[in-house]
Design goal:
Order of helices and strands: HHEEHHHHH
Number of domains: 1
Strand order of the largest sheet: 1-2
Distance between the termini: 22 Å
CATH architecture: Alpha-Beta Complex
Number of helices: 7
Helix content: 55-70%
Oligomer: single chain
């Protein structure tokens, strides 16, 4: 499932020749996210390591992880949305095995500031922490 989403992202970004258009695409992803509830803007959901404020919530339903997130900065919110798009719906094991290689293949890393790249890695690390917790909660068969 992750690979299909990654390929779709690469295809979408590949249709945009200019990086300003790619930034707009990422910002638009953030704009289209469901509103993040104020009740979830808590310290334990805040992702540290990001220059902007970022919140991430996760729940496990039917063996799959579902994320919600938000940021107070447009591009960062778009990056949160991008990661949520890629990894929501994964099983804990799928997410544990996932990487951010798509970021390299899409050329995002070379066009993001170091602080945004570090922030994206911090968000991904938090996602993987959730996967680890959920993996231990899943019943063994």
């Amino acid at each position: 499932m992750v690979h299909n989403k990654e390929q779709q992202l690469l295809d979408d970004l590949g249709m945009l020749a200019e990086w300003t258009d790619r930034y707009e695409y990422i910002i638009d992803l953030g704009r289209r996210m469901e509103p993040y509830p104020d009740a979830l803007r808590t310290e334990d959901r805040e992702v540290h390591g990001c220059q902007s404020q970022v919140w991430l919530d996760a729940r496990l339903e039917s063996g799959r992880i579902h994320f919600q997130g938000d940021s107070n900065a447009l591009i960062t919110k778009g990056l949160v949305a991008l990661l949520i798009h890629l990894f929501s719906g994964c099983t804990p094991r799928e997410l544990a095995d996932a990487s951010l290689a798509v970021v390299e293949r899409a050329g995002l890393r070379e066009h993001l500031t170091l602080s945004r790249t570090n922030g994206m890695q911090a968000i991904f690390k938090r996602m993987k922490q959730h996967a680890s917790v959920f993996e231990h909660l899943e019943p063994t068969t």
